[in-house]
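> forwarded from #structure-qc
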């Protein structure tokens, strides 16, 4: 089931609020799960929503995974996630970190805060 953070504005008084967006996956199931992550950015140079990262990876049973994506210098960003597996008990969260690695207020999106979408914007293999 795919989810999105929605578009998050990434500007503050001195430039980018967030330098890296961190995507956390926690697999509570007894089987592995395939996680797909898409990170979109709105570059200051174009103002156009652009796919920056598309990655898929396995999260082992009863384990977790943390991925970081560099997004500094962009006006906005969005993270879309999808978990594929016969029995998925994977909880996803995203956190925006500043250039010092500190969590940026307002850039934390927990699983229950994400919006369910019908499919990822860029289906794998497209």
């Amino acid at each position: 089931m795919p989810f999105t953070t929605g578009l998050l504005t990434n500007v503050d008084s001195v430039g980018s609020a967030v330098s890296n967006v961190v995507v956390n996956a926690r697999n509570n199931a007894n089987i592995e799960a395939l996680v797909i992550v898409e990170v979109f950015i709105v570059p200051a140079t174009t103002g156009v929503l652009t796919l920056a990262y598309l990655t898929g990876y396995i999260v082992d049973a009863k384990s977790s995974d943390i991925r970081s994506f560099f997004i500094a210098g962009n006006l906005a960003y969005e993270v879309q996630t999808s978990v594929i597996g016969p029995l998925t008990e994977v909880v996803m969260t995203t956190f925006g970190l500043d250039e010092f690695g500190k969590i940026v207020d307002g850039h934390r999106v927990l699983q229950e805060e994400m919006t369910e979408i019908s499919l990822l914007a860029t289906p794998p293999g497209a």
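QC bot note: The chain has a mean pLDDT of 92. The first strand starts at residue 2 and ends at 4.
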